[in-house]
Amino acid sequence: MSVHSMGRRRFLRGMLATGAGVTLGLPTLESLLHRGSRARADSPTPPKRFLVWFWGNGIVPERWIPTETGAVWTPPAMLARIATPELRPYVSVVTNAEIKSAWQPHAGGASGALCGSYLNDPIGSNGTPQSASIDQVIANAIDVSPGGLRSLELAGDRHFSGVAGTVYNYISHRGPGMPNEYDRDPRSVFRRLFGTVESVDPYSTFRGSVLDAVLADANSLTASLTASDRARLDQHMTSIRELETRIAASAGPTCTAPTDPSGTVSDSMIEDEFGTVMNFTMMNDTMMQLLATALACDLTRVASYMYTGPAAFTRYFEAPDVPHLAEYPTLPEATHAMAHLSDGSTPNTPLLAGMEAALNETMRHFGRSLEIFRNTPDGTGNLLDNLVVYGTSCTGYGPLHSHTEYPLVVAGLAGGAIRGGTHHRFAGTPGNAARVPFTLAHAVGADIASFGLAEAQTSDVISELLT
Amino acid sequence: MLRSQTTLAIALLLCTACTGKLDGGQPAAPNTPNTPNTPNTPVPATPGDRLMRRVTALEYAQSVQDVLEVAPAGELPADVRVLGFSRVGAGTTSINPLAAEQYENVAHELARRAFSDSARARRLSGCTPTGVADQACARTAIGRIGARLFRRTLTEAELTLYSQLTLDAAAHVGSFDGGLSLAVSGMLQSPRFLNQVEVGEAMPGSTTRRRYTDYEMAARLASFVWNSVPDQALLDAAAGGELVTDDGLRTQLTRMLADARARKAITALMIEHFDIELLETAVPNVGATVGIASAMREELSRVLETAIFDEPATKFRDLFTRDSTFVNAQLATHYGLTPPGGSGFERVSLPANRRGILSLGAVLASHGHGGRTSPTLRGLFVRQRLMCTSIPGPPANVSTDVPINSGATARIRLMRHNTDPSCAGCHLQMDPIGFGFEQFDAVAAFRTQEGGETIDPSGDLDSVAFADAASLGVALSQNQGIEACMARNLFRAAAGRREAPSELSVFNSSRLPTGGLTVSQLIEYVILSEPFRSFQSQ
User: Fold this and answer.
1) Of the spans A22-31, A108-117, A203-212, B251-260, which averages the highest pLDDT?
2) Euclidean distance between CA atoms A259 and A389, whole angstroms
3) Tell me, what's the pLDDT at A248?
4) Which of A121-130, A291-300, A398-407, B96-105 has the lowest mean pLDDT?
5) d(CA A1, nearest CA chain B) in Å
6) In 3D, which of B62, B97, B101, B95 has the Cα closest to residue B79?
7) Residue A65, phi then psi, degrees to nearest 5
8) Which of B145, B173, B196 delimits the end of a domain?
9) One domain for residues B455 and B324
10) Cα A125 to Cα B525: distance, rounded to the nearest angstrom
11) Measured between CA atoms, how close is A41 to chain B, in angstroms?
């Protein structure tokens, strides 16, 4: 279904429209001041923002782990895609960390890295994380953008290799069994966030009253439900209240919208499973530009981007070093498949090299994303000065499906709370990967006592990452 | 160097983990959630208890089509598959902010469209308003439409709430039908429409279970068999107290299965059961394979619909030995068959080497590694989905860099799976079944050789020898567990939940009638079963 009706933001902007052109109503500057940040009334500081940038299929540790630690290090080839000379001051990496809460590759790894908890299904991959993901923990603990979205969920490619349970398909969870739906069509993201309508009719302006009635109806239902269903209904009602808040948001200063992507993104790119991938660089750039603007305009302060899902089958048409299938020469090998070699040679050098090429392409896209953030003005600097990006994946080294040497990237300075440019390597026994998201939550001012469950539970920041 | 890191300790763990037992209901919770950071502390549902089940995208679309005579436009929230079914996912997930926004947009647009045609507005509302403030007509319309959307007669409070909303909205937009469309858009966003809400009533003769009420049973039937809300006949049967009796349920089911909506809903459900969601990933729509994936999907759909609805004698087990299929010219060529004359799909006989539903392209191609076959994944599908055997996922830190033995065929390459005790515990349950399908390549084309070596497709299924995929199909069709597993899966889909351990015996093969059942009979078995009609009261 690709026909979009009038989007929420279109409606909202329509209500606020004061003239021609694409302008956004935004809250007053005062309300942008973030609680706990070093902002002063006479020198407004942009709020701190948080982003999860998730990719499938891990890394090649030998191409990732710098030899030196501390502030001076040389990134090996794969890491060099994101630790470019320009980005290097913003990028930190934590190594010799493992997922302490996983009994299963991919879905378990993602659950551990994002939620710090085991899946609730130890047998298969039907499970769901036992606790909320870090983006939702942070969204709950910091001031949300007034009139904006509590959090924004986006995705790139959707070549999943697993379809059961919630973790193969979603990286953002409000709790067990509560995945957050994402948007992977840049056109619909644009419409939701930046769209306009030509006219406002009385039908649109009555929508808030309809939601009031729905809430009243839902309220009277609560008493008849079981405790678990009551929690699910609460979520629904919270979602409706958020919708109401956004409808009621008042106008303020304006912010210029990015280019409408409907000129470059077509239906076939979204609907055709392979269209997206053949244009992955353009699709990724487009989505990241929208995200950067949404963050810079304070339309949201917390976001997650599932660039590719856990164990993604993504085929990189644009990466020349990814081998193609012998029977179908137009088709590059699927990334996850290359980790399950099974084609006869020992070791299978062409496919291992192919997997490395695919992951290099992944990191090139991650680097381009960071570059877009760096090029987005924010306050007196750029977005990476005030944003912090948590980059992670579903496994360490793919062919081993390992949970050791887990990829953990920290990019951006979180308003000066993050030191930047650090390689921290846990000494001795592998460290707890969940300490990285806990540290970042602390850096953006989320007042949480601990993060994660069971063996992964932590209340220790990694001080080497902080200023 | 990195590949040598697989440790013996992990290997031993793997070995003991795989018991290959029948999936025995709820998995044990590994540790008690202690969730200081969870926004809304989750409360796990009690096994066997009632469950608020959200409508799937298919149910939403069919329901509004049936009640409001329009199809939804725009993006509906995506379904989450749990235990293989969107309907089970619908019993665990909740409505997040983006989903609420999508429901809101879709509801406003479709309600406005439904009531923009005044003839349809009169038909739907059942009255002609005297003006924007016609309270009687508002109550009539809301009562009538609401009974369908909420699957029962509205309470006075609900009637008041939504008829007042109608009048307020009508005054605001200056049109009665416009006001009605806004009120209906509210009902479409109500948790009472977006979920099947059940409370149950005392069950005669039981202190531990409560049964679903007549109206709740009407809703359960409509949702499972039609992907819709009850029609007037079901609501009438509920009002007459017929749906808590075996005879009443049988009568309604027979009527419902003859309806086109049953064809759509049950066929879609069975396609989901055969787990082909990854088909388009495995057989991409580019180059030499343009169009093949969609032809394979269509083929499976036609085979299932025909076998279930047009061949009353075809039993579920017969699907595994079926000797005909539906192909278009492209798919026929792909299978090595003579293309049919016309441009569309035609029924054709299958050659001796390709028999049964498991030899169809959609099923074979969906279980592989994106362009390569995986005997393990094909075997896992058969064990897990079709035989209800529980096989744990591989543990973390296990090497999947398989080719320790180099060789042309998968059987040789995967030798270690079945000789290394650390792997064999689980893999011996999966790989031998998968080897039986190795004469079909990753996109389901038939082959006898791989890498210049002849493929050996023989093996045994729980001590029943098979020579190739065709005789593996025969072995599966004779396996007692296959039918009972289908009944269990149909129950899960029907009820939107996993069966509780105490309910498991209902789906034991010894409880099913002997001689084999058709899919329709399996559906009837599920609908008449106690776990579908009642729940464990807490």
Assistant:
1) B251-260
2) 24
3) 66
4) A121-130
5) 6
6) B95
7) -85, 115
8) B196
9) yes
10) 29
11) 31
CA distances A347 to A217, A353, A399, B397, B400, Å, are: 63, 11, 11, 18, 12
* Residue whose token pair is 């500057």: A29
Q: Per the CB < 8 Å rule, is A232 touching B93?
A: yes
Burial of A131-153, coded b for 16+ CB within 10 Å and e otherwise, reads bbbbbbbbbbbbebbbbbbbbbb
3-state class (DSSP) for residue B464? strand
Contact in structure between A305 and A155 (CB atoms under 8 Å)? yes
User: pLDDT tens-digit profile of B117-139?
Assistant: 999 999 999 999 999 999 999 99
Q: Residues A307-318: pLDDT tens digits?
A: 999 988 888 989
| Domains in chain B, number | 2
Residues of B in Cβ contact (< 8 Å) with A241: none
Using the predicted structure, report yes or no on whether residue A18 has a pLDDT greater than 70. no
Place of tokens 């496919």: A351
**Residue pair A131/B42 in contact by the 8 Å Cβ criterion:** no
* CA-CA-CA-CA dihedral for B393, B397, B398, B401, to nearest 10: 120
Q: DSSP 3-state assignment of A218? A: helix
The reply to whether B180 and B323 lie within a common domain is no
| pLDDT given at position B324 | 97
Q: Around Cβ A271, how many Cβ atoms within 10 Å?
A: 12
Domain boundary among B457, B477, B497: B477
Residue A198's pLDDT band, with cuts at 50, 70 and 90, is: very low
Band the pLDDT of A399: cuts 50, 70, 90. Answer: confident
Residue B168 lies in a domain: yes
The nearest CA of chain B is from the CA of A102 a distance in Å of 7
Establish if B443 belongs to a structural domain.
Answer: yes
| DSSP code of residue B242 | G
Residues B164 and B303 in one domain: no
Distance in angstroms (rounded) separating the CA atoms of residues B388 and B21 = 9
pLDDT at A136: 96
Full domain range(s) for residue B282: 269-477
Residue B398 falls inside a structural domain? yes
**B242 domain residue, yes or no:** no
pLDDT lower than 50: segments of chain B: 1-16, 25-41, 403-405
User: Among A166, A181, A183, which would you mutate to test the B interface (most chain B Cβ atoms within 10 Å of its Cβ)?
Assistant: A181
Residue of B nearest to A327 (CA): B371
Q: For residue range A45-85, list pLDDT tens digits in order.
A: 899 999 999 999 999 999 999 999 999 999 999 999 999 99
